[in-house]
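in:
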């Protein structure tokens, strides 16, 4: 279904000024040319104070980037710029309301004619002979990769170049009005190549700086940015892995994050805005990258996020109706104010799992349980350096269910409005069915139970007030009734306004 590149795990391409004239002629035909390689970025060590370079990066027009010679690291160029804001410590949930965040600004939206393309997460280590070393670094089995030859699969492989050509994906045919609206919204709001590239540039530079404090650490881009369900307005999620063993999130992780926050507030204050340490169950540092205008959440050793990123990525691409349906549901939930875990409603992750669960439980399923069908590919104990390879082994899922996007959207709302038993059942994509609620303390007195497919926790634990739960159920019921009667997406979500807002 998708082109399967053979360059995963290879060193990045050399900079153009180091390439021989016959460079591209020597490449396998399966490798598309790149707009700009990761090696060019590393060799150049961008100086983001260069105005021309910053404008080129933000515009996505990489052809205008001037030639530069190696310079000091971008985010840590030795200058001790003024601190933009004093470190702020918050106690509470991951997301904050706008009223609680000072100097909050509207996130910038980016525009690109390209469809979403997969981008290499350069945290996947390079082969030993080409891995970049850092002072004081000690080899760790966590970051020793053993690469395998290409396997046939439908999931677009992550590439070594952060600016690959867009991958042509086959979208479902939309013959009825509702399906056409779903597809139109998806095509307009899905994450673009340039959006992902901006996040990867920030990740690359931050990793260099953080490795000065923690030489063995690696910084992973995770979540919707990489799992196939990102939108143009998606934040960036980062996981800082400092060691193979788990860390205590209440003590050790908070201490590590306090050091990272201090780095952001001092040495990187010219590039990082409003770094805030938030003491949630999984503590994070929230910040805004001034260069890309993207907001990020950074955690420490929450490695389950790395695993579920690639599990969800596989679900996203094995059936071409999955991504459009998920995006519309996320936009719908956001419009109806039920997509904010910090305010006691559903997280985007829970919403994605709810859509996948629905598609698994149809009389003629559209999705299988990947963890059941491919247990070795999605083993929760698999070493992190192998996790990214798992999706490449999974072929497309050929469902006999020919339902349209419109029919599936109506069915999704009907399922949760009339069929799913909230009080007795738990959503489990691992089992591909609704299972009886566990009797553990984490599941008692919870209104919505959604199983995290790797660690078994409740991803919907934020919904702890009956009033919020009733609002969520009511939105499902009203949306199902309206959509069933009118078959027009505008009756539950203003399409034009949503596209303009993105």
């Amino acid at each position: 279904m998708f082109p399967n590149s053979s360059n995963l795990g290879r060193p990045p391409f050399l900079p153009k000024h180091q390439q021989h004239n016959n460079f591209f002629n020597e490449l396998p035909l399966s490798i598309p040319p790149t707009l700009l390689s990761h090696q060019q970025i590393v060799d150049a060590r961008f100086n983001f104070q260069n105005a021309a370079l910053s404008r080129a990066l933000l515009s996505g027009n990489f052809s205008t980037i001037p030639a530069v010679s190696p310079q000091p690291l971008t985010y840590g160029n030795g200058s001790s710029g003024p601190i933009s804001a004093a470190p702020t410590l918050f106690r509470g949930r991951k997301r904050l309301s706008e009223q609680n965040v000072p100097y909050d600004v509207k996130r910038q939206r980016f525009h690109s004619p390209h469809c979403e393309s997969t981008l290499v997460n350069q945290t996947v280590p390079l082969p030993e002979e080409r891995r970049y070393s850092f002072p004081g670094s000690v080899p760790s089995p966590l970051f020793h990769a053993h690469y395998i030859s290409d396997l046939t699969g439908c999931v677009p492989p992550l590439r070594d170049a952060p600016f690959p050509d867009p991958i042509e994906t086959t979208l479902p045919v939309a013959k009825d009005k509702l399906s056409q609206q779903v597809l139109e919204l998806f095509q307009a709001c899905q994450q673009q190549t340039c959006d992902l590239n901006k996040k990867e540039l920030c990740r690359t530079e931050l990793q260099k700086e953080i490795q000065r404090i923690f030489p063995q650490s690696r910084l992973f881009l995770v979540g919707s940015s990489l799992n196939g369900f990102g939108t143009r307005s998606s934040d960036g999620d980062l996981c800082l892995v400092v060691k193979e063993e788990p860390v205590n999130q209440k003590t050790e992780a908070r201490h590590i994050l306090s050091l990272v926050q201090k780095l952001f507030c001092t040495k990187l204050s010219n590039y990082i805005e409003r770094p805030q340490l938030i003491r949630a169950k999984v503590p994070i540092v929230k910040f805004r990258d001034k260069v890309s205008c993207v907001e990020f959440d950074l955690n420490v050793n929450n490695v389950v996020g790395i695993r579920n990123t690639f599990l969800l990525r596989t679900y996203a691409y094995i059936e071409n109706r999955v991504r459009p349906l998920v995006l519309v549901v996320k936009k719908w939930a956001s419009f109806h104010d039920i997509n904010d875990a910090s305010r006691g409603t559903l997280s985007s992750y829970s919403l994605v799992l709810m859509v996948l669960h629905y598609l698994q439980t149809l009389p003629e399923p559209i999705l299988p349980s990947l963890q059941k069908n491919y247990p070795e590919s999605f083993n929760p104990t698999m070493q992190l350096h192998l996790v990214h390879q798992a999706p490449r082994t999974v072929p497309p899922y050929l469902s006999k269910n020919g339902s349209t996007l419109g029919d599936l959207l109506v069915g999704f709302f009907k399922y949760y409005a009339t069929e799913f038993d909230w009080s007795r059942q738990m959503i489990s994509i691992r089992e591909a069915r609704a299972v009886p609620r566990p009797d553990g303390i984490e599941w008692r007195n919870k209104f919505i139970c959604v199983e995290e497919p790797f660690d078994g926790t409740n991803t919907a634990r934020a919904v702890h007030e009956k009033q919020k739960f009733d609002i969520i159920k009511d939105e499902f019921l009203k949306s199902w009734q309206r959509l069933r009667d009118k078959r027009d997406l505008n009756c539950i979500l203003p399409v034009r306004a949503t596209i303009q807002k993105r």
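note: Strands lie at 88-91, 218-222, 236-241, 272-279, 284-289, 294-300, 425-428, 433-436.
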